[in-house]
Amino acid sequence: MSELLVVEDLTVTFPTTRGPVDVVKDVSFTVGRDETVGIVGESGSGKSMTSLAIMGLLPRGATTRGSIRLDGTEVLGASARELRRLRGDRMSMIFQDPLSSLNPYYTVGLQIEELYRAHRGGSRAAAREVVTGALRQVGLPDPERRARHYPHQFSGGQRQRIMIAMALVCSPSLLIADEPTTALDVTVQAQILRLLADLRGQSGMGMVFITHDLAVISSIATRVLVMRRGEQVEYGTAEQVFAEPRHDYTRMLLDSIPRIDDPLDEVSA
Amino acid sequence: MTLLRAKDLTKRFVARGPLGAKAGFTAVDRVSFDVRLGETLAVVGESGSGKSTTARMIAKLLEPSEGTLEFEGEDVTHAKGAALARFRGNVQVVFQDPFSSLNPRHTVERILMAPLVYQGIAPNGGRRAHAKELMERVGLNPDHSLRYPAQFSGGQAQRIGIARALAVNPRLVICDEAVSALDVSVQAQVIELLRRLQRESGFSYVFIAHDLAVVRQIAQRVAVMSKGRIVELGTTGQVFDDPQDEYTRTLLAAIPRIDPEWERRRREKI
């Protein structure tokens, strides 16, 4: 499998009043074309900082070491202009809260259209057609009409579909999904997970899926990276990590998951 | 023995449109259930199912539009004054976000003493000592009683919220998504704590949650809510292993699971 994304010895450091703190320490992994790599960890594990580093979206003041290559292009240290060209085009990201990622004053159609034209140019009419197609692809009913609606007119699940449409409108080779289903109801989560898996399969792009939920990761990722306090504690195929975890922390995490079937010590009725 | 009885509890909200037109919305529609002494009854549902509105009505934080609420045989639906204070002495709530439900400017000691002051309870040894005992019961270091909520982690802060609920020695504790915001390893510890406290004191829980896997670890009976109504109510085993309602089946099927084969292999290794 040819590697799409190569992350090597990534370290992200923040200055604090008590000296520099490494929030990500020597993290290395690769994402192939046509696969999903899951990054799992609890709060403060550095999983989101890793994804922001890939997108070149780290907060001001952060310093980085190591290397992140997308299709051979070094992302770390790339100019703002170069990053702007990559983001939304060759790599895209979706977040936990779609409402805070969408501008409440513009129709969703216009927002996707703007992104598309910034990268691809062309006429408004042509872009509108692409937008309608993108919204149809994510399963939004009546896309021509719905493109003229504002973010607040959609449900949480629909908004996440819109974010996915926006992320994929330029057919990126890499999609980073940071807790995209965490805020959703479980039945809606199941739909969005299926949608992401289907779209990834159709387009052959690579996906990095970040979550705190091990069961979600196990259902979508082919390879899994477990992080804790900025460090990579385990990295392997999903089967390896879930069936034969090598690290105590991974075992502890897996033991902590409440079981829906086969409860280990079910309370007696 | 029935501790709390909700009968046909209904909550309608009235929204006013731009031209003054009224539009009614029924958040909870004729919900009935009993809570028995010493049991844990879970109320599960997705957003908008009415589970939190139900929780707030049985906690008497919200007046029902219709229906009645009985506690130990007494009608408390419209309880006020002394009757309401008595109810609060028996029924306490643990909320989802400990940081927004604990006063950031009060020390833990003051937070834990407040319910006693409100109820006019003077325990043997004094309220300060009682606050320290409570901290120990929930696994917090009593030497930290003069710290402020912000000085604790999320899991520790939720333990303070639990300790506050237990301060008046209640007979019923309502947990409204009490473990939803916690990391999975912390969540497992807090669930274990909730179970231990119940074993020690014998009170009942009404456990409101959207996470069915968590519910399975703690409840003996489960009520499933959808669109303001209870669609299924039964023992945990019945509801999870032999769900009767179509919505319950959809909900259970949607839960992401780790491949059972992987799980089996992992357990064998240990």
From TrEMBL, chain A:
User: Is Cell membrane set as a keyword in this record?
Assistant: yes
Q: Which SUPFAM superfamilies match?
A: P-loop containing nucleoside triphosphate hydrolases
Query: PROSITE patterns recorded for this chain?
Result: ABC_TRANSPORTER_1, ABC_TRANSPORTER_2
Q: Which UniProt keywords apply?
A: ATP-binding, Cell membrane, Membrane, Nucleotide-binding, Transport
- A GO molecular function held by the record: ATP hydrolysis activity
Compartments where located: Cell membrane
Q: Which InterPro entries match?
A: AAA+_ATPase, ABC_Ni/Peptide_Import, ABC_transporter-like_ATP-bd, ABC_transporter-like_CS, Oligopep_ABC_C, P-loop_NTPase
GO CC, any one term: plasma membrane
Domain named ABC transporter is located at 5-254
Biological processes per GO annotation: peptide transport
Can the keyword Nucleotide-binding be found in this entry's annotation? Answer: yes
Q: What is its main location?
A: membrane
Against Gene3D superfamilies, the record matches this protein to: P-loop containing nucleotide triphosphate hydrolases
Identify its membrane topology class.
Peripheral membrane protein
PANTHER family for the chain: DIPEPTIDE TRANSPORT ATP-BINDING PROTEIN DPPD (PTHR43297:SF2), OLIGOPEPTIDE TRANSPORT ATP-BINDING PROTEIN APPD (PTHR43297)
Similarity section: Belongs to the ABC transporter superfamily.
Q: What is this protein called?
A: ABC transporter ATP-binding protein
Q: Which organism is it from?
A: Nonomuraea deserti
TrEMBL record, chain B:
SMART domains in UniProt: AAA
Which intervals hold domain ABC transporter? Answer: 4-252
Provide this UniProt record's keywords sorted from A to Z: ATP-binding, Nucleotide-binding, Transport
* Listed CDD domains: ABC_NikE_OppD_transporters
Question: An example of a Gene Ontology BP annotation on this entry?
Answer: transmembrane transport
Highest taxon of source: Bacteria
Q: Does the keyword ATP-binding apply?
A: yes
Gene Ontology molecular function? ATP binding; ATP hydrolysis activity
What InterPro entries does its record include? AAA+_ATPase (IPR003593), ABC_transp_ATP-bind (IPR050319), ABC_transporter-like_ATP-bd (IPR003439), ABC_transporter-like_CS (IPR017871), Oligopep_ABC_C (IPR013563), P-loop_NTPase (IPR027417)
**In which family does this protein belong, per the annotation?**
Belongs to the ABC transporter superfamily.
Q: What is this protein called?
A: ABC transporter ATP-binding protein
- Species source reads Nonomuraea deserti
